[in-house]
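Table S2 (text version). Query chain:
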Amino acid sequence: MAQPRFAADAVGMVLGALLDVVFGDPRRWHPVAGFGRFASLVERRTYADDRVAGARFALVTVGVPVAAAAAAARLTRRRPVARTALVAAATWAALGGTSLAREGRVMADRLEHGDLDGAREQLPNLCGRDPSTLEAPELARATVESVAENTSDAVVGPLFWGAVAGLPGIVGYRAVNTLDAMVGHRSPRYARFGTASARLDDVANLAPSRLTAALTVAAAPVVGGDPGQALRVWQRDGGRHPSPNSGQCEASMAGALGVRLGGRNVYGSRVEERPQLGDGGRPTPRDVRRAATLSVTVAAAAVGVAAAARLRLGRHERGRGRK
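Corresponding structure-token output:
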């Protein structure tokens, strides 16, 4: 039997995932928004156009919430009900799977009804590409790619680190991922300052992205896909993407849906040519809907895997304590 604190963590993650299913993202007083304001304050006080300043910024902005979460975990070590509630709240705040799938379905609806203007307005809810010149096939592709990547970032990543490190893992992962979104992109201001945050996010997502890809392969039949094809495309194309992690998720999604991803992406004044992932045609609105369904399926599987892993770790710790 697992130690009570590990069992509380496992139950808390499951409850937090259920809260996300029922309510989606908290509409007011979202902790991630509060963290963003804290990080912006630290940035204003520490910014300099160099990597050392960026490393100090990342250390402070990640270290403070992780230290607070670790202190809370210690205080609730022998209080399983309080610990369960804390982990459930943190998991709910960290997860974004329900909102991600909902945004994907909205995009599918607009594309199916030929509402191109509405689809272009919808895209910024999913990714940072310039939608102004995109036609329906490119809007569908951008959505499928975003759903694939964010299934890892918004679902599997927090759960993976919750399984590994409990409450501090959930909080720390969400802090790292939020910093990457804030300062980890390529721009004149953050080209050097954001390097540490971007690299930290890469490291934090090495395992979650590959777990996401593996779960996507396993779940392919839910949307009529072939797991063998999904595995083949993942293994062949996962390393072609400029990101060490996004390509894993996007390639497995492309294989599971039987579509082709990649191509020309415009981010404001910056243009990127991404390699082709997959062998099929360009995604259709139906494929966007299938991607959302696949994301929800992967999320449900990830909850089960994370809770089981945390319980197993607790049994391992109990066994060590008896020696």
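Notes on Table S2: The longest helix spans residues 136-183. The longest strand covers residues 264-267.
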